[in-house]
Amino acid sequence: MSFQAYLDKIEEKTGLTPRQLLEIAGEKGYATPETKAGAVADWLKADYDLGRGHAMALFHVLKNGPKISSKHVNSGTAHSDPSDTLWLDGKATNPGR
Fold it and tell me: Residue 95 pLDDT more than 80?
């Protein structure tokens, strides 16, 4: 599943866009350099019943912003994305669709 597909599925499961979840993460104190992936995964599981793959995709954006490595762009692999920039404002408004 691509990074963008994980983020889109998070929105389907929670009703919140990735950007909204990132804001909540900040309010809960998870937007710090010290935050560990496990803490974010535990929070997302407890509050939204999201699995580890979904949590790791959101954690990546929390730590690195919406840019992903160009090695994932049109790579033909399971994690291939069409762009190196992830859309965080909801799949219905994604101009790349």
Answer: yes
Place of tokens 């599925």: 9
13 and 91 in contact (C-beta within 8 Å)? Answer: no
Alpha carbons 84 and 6: distance in angstroms, whole number: 15
Burial of 25 (0-12, 13-18, 19+ CB in 10 A): buried
Structure-block tokens of residue 91: 């799949």
Note the pTM of the prediction, 2 decimals.
0.89
Span 47-78, pLDDT tens digits: 999 999 999 999 999 999 999 888 778 888 77
Compute the distance between CA of residue 25 and CA of residue 55 in angstroms, rounded to an integer: 12
User: CA-CA distance, 47 to 93, in Å (whole number)?
Assistant: 25
Contacts of residue 83, Cβ cutoff 8 Å, sequence gap at least 6 = 4, 73, 96
